[in-house]
Specification:
The protein is of the alpha+beta class. It has five helices and six strands. The strands form two sheets. The chain has a four-stranded antiparallel β-sheet, with no helix packed on it. Strands 2-6 form a two-stranded antiparallel sheet.
């Protein structure tokens, strides 16, 4: 048995400042209905080295994304921001933050964010009871 990950408490006051068209409880409901993946090694490393995470060890799973997409394509949505972080200079967010894979405007996001990677989060809008069949590699990252 494994617990994949739990989030540190979210900053509800921060969400009150940055939500555009949903309430805080609605936003938390949107967040809680998803499984999250980091789209790049760089984003994963930033997450693992964050103050709240660096003192813990982690199991990192590499996923066969082609296979995952073939199975869950209709449930996959992308976000240009870290949707659960509203601590510092939180970007506006709301009902349009998560976009379906086939509707995501990579070029516009890349241009507006001024970054090489236009996606901050890959999410699946459901549970993944068959998660293990998509794992192609696992590594343990020791606490630092």
């Amino acid at each position: 048995m494994a617990v994949l990950r739990d989030q540190t408490p979210l900053c509800q006051q921060g969400f009150q400042r940055c939500l555009t068209d949903v309430s805080v409880p609605e936003w938390l409901n949107i967040l809680n209905k998803r499984v999250y993946f980091w789209p790049t090694e760089k984003r994963l490393e930033a997450h693992l080295s964050a103050k709240a995470n660096r003192l813990m060890g982690h199991h990192v799973f590499e996923i066969d994304t082609d296979r995952l997409i073939r199975t869950y394509e209709k449930a996959i949505e992308l976000s240009p921001i870290n949707s659960g972080s509203a601590i510092r200079r939180a970007a506006p967010r709301g009902s349009q933050t998560f976009q379906k894979l086939d509707e995501y405007d990579f070029a516009a996001r890349k241009k507006s964010r001024g970054r090489a990677n236009a996606v901050a989060e890959v999410t699946v809008r459901c549970s993944l009871p068959d998660f293990v069949k998509y794992v192609i590699a696992e590594r343990v990252v020791a606490a630092s």
